[in-house]
Structures are given as C-alpha cells and as structure tokens.
User: Fold this.
Amino acid sequence: MCGIVGYAGTKPALPVLLDGLARLEYRGYDSAGVAWIENGEIQRTRCQGKLAGLRELLENGKRSECPIGIGHTRWATHGAPTEENAHPHTDCTKSLVVVHNGIIENYYSLREQLKKEGHKFRSETDTEVLAHLIEKHLKDDIIDAVRKTLSEVEGAFAMGVLWKGEPDKLIAARKESPLVLGAGEGENFMASDIPALLPYTREIIFLEDGDLAVLTADGIDITRIDTGEPVNREIKTISWDATAAEKAGFRHFMLKEIYEQPQGVLNTFRGRVIPETGEVDLPEIELADEDIRKISRIVLLACGTSWHAGLVAKYWIEEWAGIPVEVDLASEFRYRRLLVDETVLTVPISQSGETADTLAGLRIAKEKGSPVIAICNVVGSTITRESHGTIYTHAGPEIGVASTKAFTSQLTALYILALFLAQVKDTMSAEERSEKIHALTEVPRLMEKHLEEIHQACTDLSDEFYQYRDFLYLGRHLHFPIALEGALKLKEISYIHAEGYAAGEMKHGPIALIDRNMPVVALVPKDHVYDKMVSNVEEVRSRRGIIIAVAEEGDENVARVAQHIIRVPATTEQSIKPFIFTLPLQLIAYEISFARGCDVDQPRNLAKSVTVE
Ligand code: F6R
Assistant:
C-alpha cells in the first residue's frame, strides 16, 4: 500500500514531510525516506523500518531549510524491506527523485531494456524503473519526460517527482492509486491520503485517474497525462478530524478494510493473468514445469481465517488441476507423523507471515524435502524468507484484528495458483481458464457496486439479532468454508457463540440444537448443490428455526424457506461466488459487534500476529 507526501512552499519542507509520513504510517512501515534539493543537488535520507529511525537519522545528520521535498513510507511489494529498496529512488546521475505507491506491472521488461541501454539499477523495486525512464526521456522538459514515461508503464501509480533542473516544481501524477492535493496559502501539498494534510490545510483536491499536477509555492496546475490538456478539479473542504480521516471516514479500520476488498482482489491478480488468452504468470513459483507435473499432493497449511481460504482452494485445485489437496491446521500438522516428501508441495498461507504454528509446520515440511511456496501479505516476513518462493497477496496493511481484506486477497492468490497448476498440467483448456479469469476480473467491480446495499441489509438485520447468544452458519461445497469464516468473524469480534457447519451434516447431530433462540445463517448460492442446500434449510425451518438466508438476486424460491434474506449479486460462474458471499458475513459480524458495543478493531484476548504457540 505505501504512503507518499510532497511539499512545495516557503517553509522548511522536512518537518511537514515527517509529520505527514507519521500520519500515513498505517499504510506501511517497512521503510521510510525523504528527499529534497539543496544547493542545486538532490539530497535524500532513507532508512529500513519505521519512521522513528528516519527521524533519528535526520536529527543526527542532514538538516535542511529547503522549502520543497517528497517523502515515502513503504509497504513492500517488490523487493525486501531494506534501505536500498526504500524510496525515494533516483536515476543514474542523481538528477531526479521519485516516490511511488502502486505496482508497475511491466517493470521487469522495462528494467531489462533500460539495463541494456546502460542504466544502473540499485534496488529490486518496480519504482526505480520510473526514475530511469524519466531520465531516459529527459532533455530539458521534466513534465514532458514524466508524460512519456507514464505512457510506457502499465499498472497503478501515485507518484511524486523532483528534478534538480527546476527546483521549485513538484510533479504529481496518479492512475488507480490514491493521491490528493492540498491547497494552502503560499504552499501546496500532495499525499496518499487526507490525514497527512489536515494539520496544514482542509482544502483538498482529489486527483482523478490520468491526472498530472505541477505544484509550486504559488499554485497547482492540473493536466491530463496523455493529452496535456488542462483540467479543473474542484477544491473540497474537509470537515473530518485527523483520527476519522485515517480511517477514511469509516468508523473502524475493519469496516474500511472490508470496503478495500475490491482493490485488494484487483491488486492481487493484476499483472498475473491474461483474460483473453487464459494465461497465468506466476514466476514466484520457482519450480520447473516438469517438477510441477510430478507433484503428487499439495498441503495447504494455515491457521484461522487463512485456513478457511485454504479450505476453499482445495475445491478449486482438485477440480481444475486434479491434484489431491490436504488442508492442515498448522497447529495439528506440526505434531503428527507427516507423510510429506519432495513430491508434496507445501503452501503455507498467512497474512502476517509470522504465525508461529504455520512457520513451524513450514520448517518441518522443508526438512522433509518438500518444496514450499507461501501465500503471504507481508513482504520480507519470516514465512516468506524461509519459503522457496512466495505469491504475495497485495491487500496492503491490515490493521483490524479480524482478517477481512487479507482473506479475499488470499482467495485471489489461491484461485490464480489453481489455474496456474491447471495450465502447467494441461488439465484445463485455455478457453476454460480464460472464462475463469474473466470471472475473477469481474469480482472487484461486483464487490464495489454492491457493498453498500449489502452493508445496509446487514445493518438492518443486526438491529434485530444483536442480542442473540448463539448462531449457526451453514453452507455446502465452496461455501462450507465460507460458513466457517462467517462464524469465526462473529465469535471473535462480538463474543457470540457461533458455529459453522456443512449443511449436509446437520441431520447427523447438530439439528438437535435448532430452536427459536439460535438463528441460522444459510448460504444459498445458485450452484450445483443449490437444491440440496434448500432441502437442508427446509429441514431447519420445519424444526421452527429462524433462517437468515444469503441468496442471489433473482432467486425467489429461497423466500419460501427463509424469514430473512440478504441479497448478493448473481453470477453465472460458480467459482467466484465465495468472494461475494463473504461480504455479508463480514458485515453482519461487524454490525452486530458494533451494536453490542464491542471493541471491533481490537477484540479482547486477541492479537493481530500470533507469534507464540
Ligand atoms: C481471524 C484472524 C486469525 C488469523 C490467524 C492466522 O480474523 O485474523 O484467525 O487468520 O491468526 O494469521 P495469519 O494469516 O497472519 O497467519
């Protein structure tokens, strides 16, 4: 995710940059850096780790009164969290500096080309490509060079550029990554997010995709990147306080993160799939195709919510790639006799990359000769360092203790992994893969479009149900793990007892529990087990159960059996339904927790990263 700031004014820039970065640290804290121009030369100070380290370096080292500068706090996506990879990045001759948030999808080919042309790279980041490309295009017009550069890059960016040739200009541009400008008196600002600017100005301009802005102390000029045409963007006055702004106006980080899921899913598949051809590119899996073809079994290893993501993936991998999958709770896996060898692929799944049980399981599997490819959200975390390769989820930092956007990003990474295995093993035609990829690429739009109405339905429901003591969640097939996840979300943030169950198992015991005091949340997607699921719900209904069905728009049949219905958008492709059905379950848990007055973001007895057994 990363945070960027920029200042062009008359006061010293450094205090403004450091203060802004502190307010953006929630966006990432792998490294921090600032750059400014002093005596006609670019100066920069960077530091691995949190901002405190950068502050200390600056206090003991370079000080400056320079009235222009840029800064960055990093959430690593390409390259480990080291000082070399910290922003701002420069070109070969140190004539310019760049800070960037986003992902340059074609950075690898651009970098190879630039290297051939003699450019020297000093980091592993995608961002450094921007600095060298601008250098390549720069004659005497920096804006023109930035435009040419941005016409060559694919992917997402919010960026700031300083060039020593015009030391009073700060250039900002954005496409698909957030960037706002702040308009002040004799000073102007740029930042990834509003909180960084609130102590200085409440007059905010929201840049649009494809905008390029030039900031000086005296003004802001905005043009389109591609045509150079000037555009007018309205200045809005913000009334939020700083804390509300950090949560982007949401009540809690958890809610903000639920709403960030379309972006998390998009960022995770971006650059890895080609819908038209059905191709999947996962260079992170450093295994030769012939070794992949020899895989006899896959072990998905995880805890909690990450384990639920693994349970969903079992269906995809077995169905599409024909490889048997075991989904193990890491805390169980590590203490049993393991039948794992070099033909078994182990895939630890972890948001934090630090979960002690998952790490221990990974080590045991590795000792037994198993190749280990992690799925993880935190670049450079222990699990990624100890695995042979990592497929990163690009959800950005997750602050709410209850995992939400990390879960749907994990589903995305696993969906792509399943298709990749099918591609290498040739168990699925390119057309079929193309259909699945097309469906996946629709998910962010569907989520975005329907989140608010799903949220409203869940809020209404919570008014009626927040005082119940027990809940049951039922699902079948891909939605059995989603039922488990829904129950986990409710228990952990609202302290209500909730159980997830495979609906077909009800008659083997749990149906005895059904009464008026235990609402049943039934997931009823229109899939190949729809009729079976409806029958299971009818069985509950006939025992006087209270049923809250999550069902697709247009499914009128479900109204016969459920007293309450939450509608989600209908999709024809079955495999993407779990992404959509997850949303109401997160929002029911969130709203019930809020109604009960619980601490949503930091529930009792829990920690975000479980580094002990
Ligand atoms: C639930 C939750 C936990 C984590 C689990 C694993 O909302 O957050 O169940 O999923 O502790 O954590 P990671 O994924 O960091 O290994």
In short: The longest strand covers residues 96-104. Residues 303-306, 350-352, 355, 358, 402-403, 488, 492, 610 surround fructose -6-phosphate (CB under 6 Å). The mean pLDDT is 94.
